[in-house]
Specification:
The chain has 50 residues and is mainly α. Helix content is 56%, strand content 0%. The chain has 3 helices and no strands. The termini are far apart.
């Protein structure tokens, strides 16, 4: 289980509200805002860089 940082909560809320796509959430992983584990928690999908 991951620690819920403020950045995680922002990404999660934006995704749930439809403001962010899966691609946007992937970008958050690439720049270090969230982890790949948190990506899966938010989107329900495994993270891949493709």
């Amino acid at each position: 289980m991951s620690v819920k940082t403020a950045q995680f909560k922002v990404v999660q809320n934006n995704f749930r509200r439809g403001l962010w796509t899966i691609e946007t959430v992937k970008k958050a992983v690439k720049v270090g805002k969230i982890t790949a584990e948190q990506f899966k928690e938010i989107t329900g999908e495994d993270y891949s860089e493709e």
